[in-house]
Amino acid sequence: MTTTAPGDRTVALFGGSFNPPHMGHVLLCAYALGTRPADELWLVPAFRHAFGKVLAPFEDRLEMCRLTAALLGPRALASDVEGKLGGESRTLVTLRHVRAAHPDRRFVLLVGSDVLSERQAWFG
User: pTM, whole model, 2 decimals?
Assistant: First the structure.
């Protein structure tokens, strides 16, 4: 029997409003799964958008992320972590939470180029 040392499993964390998930999201995830050695990819819909964007209900967007993950295969899943955290979604808060909750995993952040210029505001 082999054991996994802390940090041996890599998760690509992909957060967003996913209002709704679209082909750009699917293509980015498929590319990341196909080219990056990640054991898992988590789609993480924002609970409440930090910049005031009006969103469909969280549960609806989470279900759409579940459907999207199903298209991507067994290494992809939808995470309700921001629903559990509640409130305004902030990248740093989410990252700190998942790292504390899953010390056996190493997390890498996957972001779309459309939000990269906003990165200074992610940590609010």
Answer: 0.88
Q: In whole angstroms, what is the distance from residue 26 CA to residue 78 CA?
A: 13
Domain ranges of the chain: 14-121
Q: In the predicted model, is pLDDT for residue 118 greater than 80?
A: no
Query: Could you report the per-residue pLDDT of 44-58, keeping only the tens digit for each?
Result: 999 998 888 899 999
Instruction: Return the CATH architecture of domain 14-121.
Output: 3-Layer(aba) Sandwich (3.40)
